[in-house]
């Protein structure tokens, strides 16, 4: 009887996890495995998948369009991630102090994270649209010329980067804030006794102790930037031309407009490999930094 009780006690956590595991298996693992299989086939949904081996991957490697899209994606990601991490860390440090209206500012900075990317994209397009945008209307009232915010390739890329930063900074700001509040105050008190400056405390106490949080923030932000779709789709529709058509947008166009599911799945696998390599590299860099600090 005692053995049965212990067995049930050990099995209880897995039973509670079972619904989530089933959902994860059905909606995440199974489609991922099927997508991997499809990447080795030629399939347009209407016919049976025809196994073609590595032909899709060979075509991708030799495709100038794929590498051009990948390059644009990296420019977008490298524009988003460093600025988002730096801004969220700066806001967390500023609002970790006892300042007037701290709770209000914390709430305001977090608000964009609860909005849908579709809503954010529509809002930014409404503000920075060419003919009917609020920003250009205000500029013309002030006597300035209208700016091609979303119809010039360079400015469209910049605006997409800024919109993404605005949408995601609040989320990572909360993560950094939680990390800051987890640092024992005794370290700062000891530093005050030694007469260190605020900059020295930030460099030698705050940053080293925030490294685990910073790693998580960088990894999550990188992954989210690579798979950003809704905001860009609504805001620029990948334009002007294909200036803001990144890897996820290209996969969508290939799969659902061109109808080439096999090639699109192969691009998805390539995106997965790129994210895996970047994540592994980030963990290795972080580990070396911790070892050097120790």
Question: What would a concise description of this structure say?
Answer:
The chain has about 290 residues and is mostly helical. It has helices at about 1-40, 55-60, 65-95, 100-110, 115-130, 135-140, 155-180, 185-195, 200-210, 210-225, 230-235, 245-255, 260-294; strands at about 40, 50. Strand 1 and strand 2 form a beta hairpin.
How are the SSEs ordered, and which strands pair?
Layout: H1 2-38, E1 41-42, E2 50-51, H2 55-61, H3 64-95, H4 102-110, H5 117-128, H6 134-141, H7 153-181, H8 185-194, H9 198-209, H10 211-226, H11 230-235, H12 247-257, H13 261-293
Antiparallel strand pairs: 1-2
Helix pairs in contact: 3-7, 3-10, 4-7, 7-10, 10-13, 12-13
Describe the protein.
This protein is mainly α and 294 residues long. It has a single domain (20-293), classed as MetI-like fold (Orthogonal Bundle). 76% of the residues lie in helices and 1% in strands. The protein has 13 helices and two strands. The protein has helices spanning 2-38, 55-61, 64-95, 102-110, 117-128, 134-141, 153-181, 185-194, 198-209, 211-226, 230-235, 247-257, 261-293, and strands at 41-42, 50-51. It has a two-stranded antiparallel sheet with strand order 1-2. The longest helix has 37 residues, at 2-38. The model has no long low-confidence stretch (mean pLDDT 90).
């Amino acid at each position: 009887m005692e053995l049965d009780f212990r067995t049930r006690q050990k099995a209880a956590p897995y039973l509670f996890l079972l619904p989530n595991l089933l959902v994860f298996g059905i909606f995440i693992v199974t489609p991922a495995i099927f997508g991997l299989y499809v990447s080795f086939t030629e399939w347009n949904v209407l016919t049976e998948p025809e196994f073609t081996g590595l032909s899709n991957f060979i075509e991708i490697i030799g495709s100038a369009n794929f590498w051009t899209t990948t390059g644009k994606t990296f420019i977008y990601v490298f524009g988003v991630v460093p600025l988002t991490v730096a801004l969220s860390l700066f806001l967390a440090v500023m609002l970790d102090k006892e300042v007037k209206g701290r709770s209000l500012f914390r709430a305001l900075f977090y608000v964009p994270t609860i909005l849908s990317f579709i809503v954010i994209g529509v809002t930014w397009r409404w503000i920075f649209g060419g003919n009917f945008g609020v920003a250009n209307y205000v500029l013309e009232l002030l006597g300035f010329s209208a700016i091609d915010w979303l119809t010039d390739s360079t400015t469209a890329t910049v605006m997409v980067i800024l919109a993404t930063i605005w949408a995601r900074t609040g989320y990572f700001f909360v993560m950094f804030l939680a990390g800051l509040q987890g640092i024992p105050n005794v370290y700062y008190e000891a530093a005050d006794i030694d007469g260190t400056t605020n900059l020295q405390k930030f460099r030698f106490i705050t940053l080293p102790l925030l490294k685990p949080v910073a790693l998580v923030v960088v990894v999550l932000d990188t992954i989210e930037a690579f798979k950003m779709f809704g905001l860009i789709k609504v805001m620029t529709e990948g334009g002007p031309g294909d200036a803001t058509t990144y890897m996820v947008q290209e996969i969508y166009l290939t799969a659902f407009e061109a109808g080439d599911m096999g090639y699109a799945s192969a691009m998805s696998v390539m995106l997965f490999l790129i994210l895996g390599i970047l994540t592994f590299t980030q963990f290795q860099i972080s580990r070396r930094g911790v070892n050097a600090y120790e």
